[in-house]
Amino acid sequence: MIAVLARRAGGLIITLLAVSFLIFTVMDVLPGDPAEIMLGTSASPDTLAALRREMGLDLPFLVRYLHWLGGALTGDLGTSYTYGVPVAGLIGERLQVTVPLAILALAISIGLAIPLGVLAASRKSSVADFLVGLFSHFSIAVPGFWVGLILIIVFATTLGIMPAGGFPGWAAGFWPAFKALILPAVALGLPQAGVLTRVTRTAVLDVLGEDFVRTARAKGLTPRAALWLHAVPNALIPVVTILGLQFTFLIAGAVLVENVFNLPGLGRLAYQALAQRDIIVMQDVVLFFCAFVILMNFAVDIAYLFIDPRLRREGGV
Known about the structure:
By secondary structure, the chain is mostly helical. It folds into 2 domains: 2-73, no CATH class; 87-276, MetI-like (MetI-like fold), CATH 1.10.3720.10. The chain contains 15 helices and no strands. The chain has helices at residues 2-29, 34-39, 45-55, 61-73, 87-122, 127-141, 144-158, 174-208, 211-218, 223-234, 236-252, 255-260, 266-276, 279-307, 309-314. The chain is globular and about 85 Å long. It starts with a helix and ends with a helix. The relative contact order is 0.14. Keywords: Cell membrane, Membrane, Transmembrane, Transmembrane helix, Transport. Belongs to the binding-protein-dependent transport system permease family. GO terms for molecular function: dipeptide transmembrane transporter activity. Its main location: membrane. It is a multi-pass membrane protein.
């Protein structure tokens, strides 16, 4: 098991280095001069040259990459061209919105998908299975930002029981901040619930056809006990895989929903940095997203080892 983890950790480090180089290269070849965008086209050449030197844009490509990578490894992500503050502080501030939003959305997805998927699998070809399938198809087909707009119209504009957008901050109290995240979390979590429902149904159906489940039934276990004690735990590996992917999507893919609800999250920061051509912020945010995805995949691999003892015995993931 230790050898497996060491091998996966080595691959993780190599992947992170390759991704960082790719991100820096792509950002470097983007059209437009950050200094000219900040100062305007009417700025004098001397002023532009001075700002480029201050920003380090006059250094060779490899020197700038190594300087940026070294700063990232030590926690120094540089200073935003637009805001004039450390990027690490900006990311940490925005994560206070994005991480609770993603966790709440994932909780909504799990709370809907696991019971519905197990229900559909245990009652295959029934009315319940048809209705669960209908919910799954509908939630997958509907974009999250459209769900967000409908939720705003119904619960904020019409009923007036939920805020239409914005975030008061955690300093304003837990409930006001939590309440501001409920509608965005539903908009984010509903499409993911549809995907997870289908995966759960398929996984449980596959396990229900295994010999050990029939043996458990033959020994006198009730259908419910055989389902929850034997079928569901053994169907968790594909479910855990999807959960890992969903959480990374909820962190990195909430740009549209955060903009619909005017939430100061990490996705909105990336969108603003792109619009303002703030290269250092764009690089750092994209690197954070990629590193988070890679680390989550590593965490899922570790979870496999604990969920399925056969993987520990075989020494592979």
